[in-house]
């Protein structure tokens, strides 16, 4: 899977914000906020093919987290990103 | 000196950061603002059509000064929308240039779209339309090509033409530098022949011709003067001038493309030197470059409040006086009344500006009277 190129991440201060660049108008509903961990993972995944297990491995490398916890967090994150259309197969 | 509100001063500071600060540079206002102050800044940035440029500065503030998500999110979305519009217009521009060149014409890109290259992030400089100029009799040929595509081309009051292609407004202008005094027509013609257009790349593979550096500075200068004399002007055009000067006439550490003294001689020759001195004062007072590198301070015998009066015109009218014009358009729906309103704006605004360039003001007004200026 890959990130949908129509969504662009901006790091502004400590905020990670995603804008739908394909939206017809500048609707507030088209701007999304990510927490720091999700924002960091987005940056790692940008422009590449990635998998849930790959994201989990990245979490384990960067943060002090158990592999099982990283796997479940990565799966939940991907599920959420799919729901909002941030991911294309 | 008229006292600006603290919020307006911060708006100007952010705007100056937005146009001058190199990408990646951190900026600071010194203290956090309230939501109310942020909304005022956004309102003014929109009015002056510089919201993307100001956002560029805001996004580089330290965390302690950053506006909340509720302020940032719609602003970011708006900035994206404007950037997308700019990208779409750039594509239309590339197609038009390709089309005209294919027919043996030599379009020259004028004003905002060309000037955007001086901004730290060109895509954030908002555009209203695409402005093209053609040498000799090529403009009529260009109009014919567009008409031949089934697109309606209408004449503009300044002897140019206008049409809409791919949802983009395009104007073909009859003048490269808007100096209306007929006594200078030959001189301007000679200048344009002497200083041939330069080719630049606007991000695409295609090279596009823009006026030569000295003509480009004169073009922006005269354009601001025309609008100060007429329906009004916005801060965006002063930003254009400040950046063009900085890049072309004050190149830091390198030989500038424009000899400042020679340029100012040209202004004197064209009778706009006092106006140019006030223009430079305006930039230095309201859009000062952080860390110096001001535009050249010119000797000026104009009363000191002249700069403030121009600022009032800018602050009240916004981009090309559109804020005033939108309000009046509701009252003046028919064409004749609108034209009369434009003329009365000219007379009201002209009284103090015309003393800075009297001959040019007279001829600009004369063209307006005969309906040559919109």
Largest sheet of chain B: 5 strands, mixed
Amino- and carboxy-terminal Cα gap of chain A: 4 Å
Q: Cα-atom Rg of chain A, whole angstroms?
A: 13 Å
Which overall shape of chain B is indicated by the principal axes computed on the Cα atoms? Answer: globular
Percentage beta strand of chain B: 5-15%
- The SSE order of chain B reads HHHHEHEHEEEHEEHHHHHHHH
Describe the model:
The complex is a heterodimer of chains A (89) and B (374). Chain A has three helices and five strands, in the order ββββαααβ. Chain A has a three-stranded antiparallel beta sheet with strand order 2-3-4. In chain A, strands 1-5 form a two-stranded antiparallel sheet. The N and C termini of chain A lie close together (4 Å). With 89 residues, chain A is of the alpha+beta class. The longest helix of chain A is centred in the C-terminal third of the chain and has 17 residues. In chain A, 28% of the residues are buried. Chain B has 374 residues and is an alpha+beta fold. Chain B contains 15 helices and seven strands. In chain B, the strands form two sheets. Chain B has a five-stranded mixed beta sheet. In chain B, α1 packs across α3 and α9 packs across α11. The radius of gyration of chain B is 20 Å and the shape is globular. Chains A and B meet through β2 and β3 of A and α4 of B.
Overview features:
A: 89 residues; three-stranded antiparallel beta sheet; 3 helices; 22% strand; globular; B: 374 residues; alpha+beta; five-stranded mixed beta sheet; 15 helices; 7 strands
Quick rundown:
The complex is a heterodimer of chains A (89) and B (374). With 89 residues, chain A is of the alpha+beta class.
Q: Which helices and strands, and how do they pair?
A:
The complex is a heterodimer of chains A (89) and B (374).
Chain A lengths: L1 E2 L3 E6 L2 E6 L10 E4 L1 H10 L6 H11 L4 H17 L3 E2 L1
Helix pairs in contact in A: 2-3
Chain B lengths: L5 H15 L14 H13 L3 H8 L10 H34 L5 E3 H5 L14 E4 L4 H11 L5 E2 L5 E5 L2 E6 L11 H10 L3 E4 L5 E4 L2 H17 L5 H14 L11 H10 L3 H14 L18 H13 L4 H10 L3 H19 L4 H12 L5
Helix pairs in contact in B: 1-2, 1-3, 8-9, 9-11, 11-12, 14-15
